[in-house]
Amino acid sequence: MPTSRSYWDSCGIARALDVVGERWALLIVRELLLTPQRFSELRQALPNVSSNVLADRLRELENRGVIRHGPADAEGPKVYELTEWGRKLEPIVRALGTWGIDAPQPPEPAALSASSVLIYLEDAARPDPTAPPTVCRLELGGRVWTVRLADGRLQVQAGETTTADASLRAEPKTLSTLLADPSALEKKCDDGSITVVGDLSAIRRLLYAGSGR
Amino acid sequence: MPTSRSYWDSCGIARALDVVGERWALLIVRELLLTPQRFSELRQALPNVSSNVLADRLRELENRGVIRHGPADAEGPKVYELTEWGRKLEPIVRALGTWGIDAPQPPEPAALSASSVLIYLEDAARPDPTAPPTVCRLELGGRVWTVRLADGRLQVQAGETTTADASLRAEPKTLSTLLADPSALEKKCDDGSITVVGDLSAIRRLLYAGSGR
DNA sequence: CCGCATCCGTCGGGATACTG
DNA sequence: CAGTATCCCGACGGATGCGG
């Protein structure tokens, strides 16, 4: 059964927290920022939330108008996705993530979902505006993503693209490590922890952009 | 004893929530946005948090570097105040409040602190840029505040000012009601639920600015 | 297998009383 | 005034069940 407690405070901040302040709620929103996801995908992205709590939160967030539950497109599997109101949380959640960079790392073992790394990548990226436009295909956490570098911006999209300069397959944590130290790219290629197809320098541009140059 | 659970997730968002995601934490931050406050003032502003939980949260937030506990200035009473890092939450908390405006109001009885109304006032205010600069003194929740209207902006400061066009004493909820319907100003004056001294039209400008014109 | 529901143990949080 | 001590309940977390 969903949580029903409230702060009993008419302040907008308190009312916002009545909606998305319960445990795991904002992490679910984080997961849905880039793409709708299924229950099992959310479980994989948030391995530390128990299934009953996840079900509770999803129901709550749906009842309160933050997310929606239904087939995104014709007769696909049922996915959870943000409503228009829920999407307005995006800049807030991203800002919270930027703020949290300065918070201490949790001790191992720590989870790291594909969405987390990609959101970080978008927000931290400072691509060279003079560099050539680049499109990379990413295989991350069992899904395919498209990353576009152009006009001094980095954008992530869920799904395949028709034309990519290169493709990279990695674990989210490995990609995170590479963003902290892009110079380790070749080594990671050699030891097989990542797989690169196509123009390696495109991947290199992505990593250096995502590391803030 | 403070909470020690974690999301065990290296994502910045999760780490931020490890710090300020526990219940009441962000409402404490809200209370400290405008001015440092003492324990008893926080209790009054957050009447629904029990003293032990408040003490726990304050200790946690202090340990994690969000707030500081000490005499703000020479030998005053001990107050809680935001650290530099904690202050970086300000735009996030304000944005959350703006988002929460569209969330349902909690059933009565609902609390409403002076800080809450004043933060809302600052964020919702759209003062007429052509109107004359105005300074109002506010007595709200047992404290004195200074509100300045100038250059199409509204700014709130804690404490007295030397020169004010008018002074208004009210309960936070009453002020909130007036911001929703500024035309009720005279009535509230008459029935004694507020007290105005000085230029009534200055208060009127404040209310209309705070109501988004 | 996916999408939950149920059961149960634990712990965070709420209310009250009390202390330096 | 500024918290602490205590008790209790509900939210949370883990495991398992179970229908589609």
From TrEMBL, chains A, B:
<dbReference type="Pfam" id="PF01638">
    <property type="entry name" value="HxlR"/>
</dbReference>
<dbReference type="InterPro" id="IPR036388">
    <property type="entry name" value="WH-like_DNA-bd_sf"/>
</dbReference>
<dbReference type="InterPro" id="IPR036390">
    <property type="entry name" value="WH_DNA-bd_sf"/>
</dbReference>
<dbReference type="GO" id="GO:0003677">
    <property type="term" value="F:DNA binding"/>
</dbReference>
<keyword id="KW-0805">Transcription regulation</keyword>
<dbReference type="InterPro" id="IPR002577">
    <property type="entry name" value="HTH_HxlR"/>
</dbReference>
<keyword id="KW-0804">Transcription</keyword>
<dbReference type="InterPro" id="IPR036527">
    <property type="entry name" value="SCP2_sterol-bd_dom_sf"/>
</dbReference>
<protein>
    <submittedName>
        <fullName>HxlR family transcriptional regulator</fullName>
    </submittedName>
</protein>
<keyword id="KW-0238">DNA-binding</keyword>
<feature type="domain" description="HTH hxlR-type">
    <location>
        <begin position="11"/>
        <end position="108"/>
    </location>
</feature>
